[in-house]
Amino acid sequence: xxxxxxxxxxxxxxxxxxxxxxxxxxxxxxxxxxxxxxxxxxxxxxxxxxxxxxxxxxxxxxxxxxxxxxxxxxxxxxxxxxxxxxxxxxxxxxxxxxxxxxxxxxxxxxxxxxxxxxxxxxxxxxxxxxxxxxxxxxxxxxxxxxxxxxxxxxxxxxxxxxxxxxxxxxxxxxxxxxxxxxxxxxxxxxxxxxxxxxxxxxxxxxxxxxxxxxxxxxxxxxxxxxxxxxxxxxxxxxxxxxxxxxxxxxxxxxxxxxxxxxxxxxxxxxxxxxxxxxxxxxxxxxxxxxxxxxxxxxxxxxxxxxxxxxxxxxxxxxxxxxxxxxxxxxxxxxxxxxxxxxxxxxxxxxxxxxxxxxxxxxxxxxxxxxx
Length: 371
Ligand SMILES: Cc1ncc(COP(=O)(O)O)c(C=O)c1O
Hints:
The protein is of the alpha/beta class. It has two domains: 2-9 and 257-370, Aspartate Aminotransferase, domain 1; 14-255, Aspartate Aminotransferase, domain 2. It has twelve helices and twelve strands. The chain has helices at residues 14-26, 37-57, 70-84, 98-109, 127-133, 156-165, 241-256, 258-278, 305-311, 331-335, 340-344, 357-370; strands at residues 2-3, 64-67, 89-93, 113-117, 138-144, 169-173, 192-196, 207-211, 282-283, 295-299, 316-317, 346-350. The strands form three sheets. The protein has a seven-stranded mixed beta sheet, with helices on both faces. The protein has a three-stranded antiparallel beta sheet with strand order 9-10-12. It starts with a strand and ends with a helix. It binds pyridoxal-5'-phosphate.
C-alpha cells in the first residue's frame, strides 16, 4: 500500500511512539496532582513539552494551550470569541476547514455577523478585500494559512499587518503549515494559532492553541469551550500526557531533521510535477509561488474520483480532499470556480517524508491507464 494521504494524517514517527510508550508505562501520575513523585514527574514532562513547542514556534510557553487538535482549536477561537463578544463581527473565508466553517455557521445562528471572503482561482483571499470589510465591531479575522485541499498559502504577512493596524484579533489555522516551513512567530502579529500533531508525524487527538499574551500577561477574553481548571481555566480536562509529550517530540524530531526533510520533499514534489507536466494533467488551484510542497489536487477529465479511489484502494491511499459527491461537492474547489463535474474528476494526492520517487512513478503508471 502506497500512502499518499499525508494532508489527512501522517504515519507516526517511531521516535514519537517510543517516547509516548515510555510515558504511558511510567508516567501515569496526573499533572494536576501535587507533592508525590509521580505527579511531580508528570508536571515536569508537561512543562518541558510546553517549552519545547513554544521554543520551536518562537512564542512563550505560557501562551500554549494543549487540546485535542485543530478542530477543537478552531471551534474554541471562533465560538469562544463570539460567545464572549455578543453581536460582534467575524471575518473569515469561503475555503476554511470544516471545523471552522461549521463553527462560523453556528455562531451566525446566535447573532454573530460573519463575512466570508471570496478567494481567487488558487484559493487565496485578497488582503484588500479584508481591509474593506473590517468594521467598528469586527472582533476577529479567522483564516486558514495553508489550504488542506489545494496546498496554497494565504498572504499571512499582509493579513497580519492589516489586522494589527485595525486592531482586530487574528486567528490562523496553521495545521497544514507547522513543520512544512521553519516558523517563528516571535514578531508576528498573530493572536491565535491552531494545529494538530498528527499532521507532523505525531499522534492523533492532540494539538495546541497558541494564544498571544499582551504586555500585562493577559490573553484575549473568550469563553472556554471545555470548562475545567486545567490550562489556567482556559481548557478543562485531565492532561493527555503521552499525547502531549509525543507532540513535543514530533515537533522536535521534524525540526531537527528539517534540512533533510525539506530536501526530500523538494525532490518528491518536483518529480511529481514533472510527471504531471508529461501527462498534461490539470492541477486545481495550483500556485507555484505560494504553496507548500507535496499537496496536489489533480483533475482527471472523464475519471470519476470516487471510482478511481475505490478501484485503486488496495494499492494507493488517496482522497477526494473532502467529502465529495455530486450532491455535496468540495466547498474549496467550488470557491475556486470548479463546477460539480470538474469537482467529481478531482483527487488530492498529498506526499510525506516516507514517500519515494518510485511510489510516485507507480502512481502515474495507473493514472496513465485511466486517462
Ligand atoms: C487546515 C486544517 N484545519 C483543521 C484540521 C482539523 O484537524 P484535527 O482533525 O486534527 O482536529 C485539519 C485536518 O484535516 C486541517 O487540515
